[in-house]
Task: inverse folding
């Protein structure tokens, strides 16, 4: 509106000047007015451009972020109060609410919590000793401190409005002592040793471009990227929900919903867990460690 008023005033000035001034002076005046007008136009254009840029950057993380995912999980009945000191009715030994068998007298138990069995490592329980062939240090002995049960999620087709639902597969992760995390996902086993927190900005900058490329190829493309001094190959991306947590030393809580990126560099592994900001139960985390074979885990 203001611009049209300026143009109108300028037009009147130019018409008057055309009538009264000699042509050379008129031409110089016209050029000056044109350049003043042009710079004015550019100035008024740039704030609009800036607003647009801000809108674009605020949309990008939302579209790629975990926030847009719609996840539908079945209701699972959980007893309100689980007694802390459950005892085996046959021998009186301490049992866990999920135990189907007493570890001491081997009598069958009716578990207080009916949890689904993970696809692998179902018999590895809290308190047990597990021996793992470490790719660098050889055989290592760990104690299981805590266990996470993961629900694998999938989408019938890609898109922000397609809900994510359980595939029916469950996988387990174990907090170990000395400090490490043993994770199974599909046919892969990870011994993860170092963990660091990431921000959404870190993830968007260092991982998202490659994850998008990998997703767009339906996880068939050979997507490689450099990170933390190594060259990584993207292996798997997807989503999970934490079905259950038990024990100590765990970094995730029941109900946490996140997406993951698994990458490898020879036998080294990178496991990224990305949670929606504002409390879906987890801190964005990057684990680094090793990919090991199932037959290198003994318990
Ligand atoms: Zn017993």
Result:
């Amino acid at each position: 509106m203001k611009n049209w008023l300026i143009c109108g005033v300028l037009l009147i000035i130019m018409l008057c000047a055309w009538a009264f001034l000699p042509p050379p002076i008129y031409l110089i005046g016209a050029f000056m007015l044109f350049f003043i007008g042009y710079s004015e136009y550019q100035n008024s254009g740039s704030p609009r451009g800036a607003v647009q840029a801000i809108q674009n950057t605020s949309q990008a993380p939302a579209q790629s972020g975990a926030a847009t995912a719609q996840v539908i999980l079945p209701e699972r009945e959980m007893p309100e109060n689980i007694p802390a000191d459950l005892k085996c009715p046959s021998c009186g030994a301490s049992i866990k609410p999920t135990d189907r068998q007493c570890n001491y007298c081997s009598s069958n138990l009716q578990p207080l919590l009916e949890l689904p069995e993970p696809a692998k490592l179902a018999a590895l329980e809290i308190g047990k000793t597990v021996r793992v062939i470490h790719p660098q240090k050889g055989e290592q002995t760990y104690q299981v401190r805590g266990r996470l049960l993961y629900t694998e999620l999938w989408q019938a087709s890609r898109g922000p409005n397609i809900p994510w639902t359980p595939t029916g597969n469950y996988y387990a992760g174990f907090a170990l002592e000395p400090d490490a995390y043993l994770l199974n996902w599909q046919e892969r086993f990870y011994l993860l040793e170092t963990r660091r927190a990431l921000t959404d900005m870190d993830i968007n900058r260092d991982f998202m471009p490659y994850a998008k490329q990998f997703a767009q190829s339906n996880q068939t493309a050979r997507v490689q990227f450099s990170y933390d001094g190594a060259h990584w190959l993207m292996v798997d991306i997807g989503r999970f929900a934490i079905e259950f947590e038990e024990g100590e030393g765990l970094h995730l809580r029941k109900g946490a919903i996140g997406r993951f990126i698994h990458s490898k560099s020879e036998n080294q592994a990178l496991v990224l867990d990305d949670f929606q900001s504002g409390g879906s139960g987890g801190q964005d985390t990057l684990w680094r460690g090793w990919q090991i074979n199932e037959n290198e885990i003994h318990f």
Confidence is low (pLDDT under 50) at residues 43-64. Residues 122 and 172 are 8 Å apart (CA to CA).
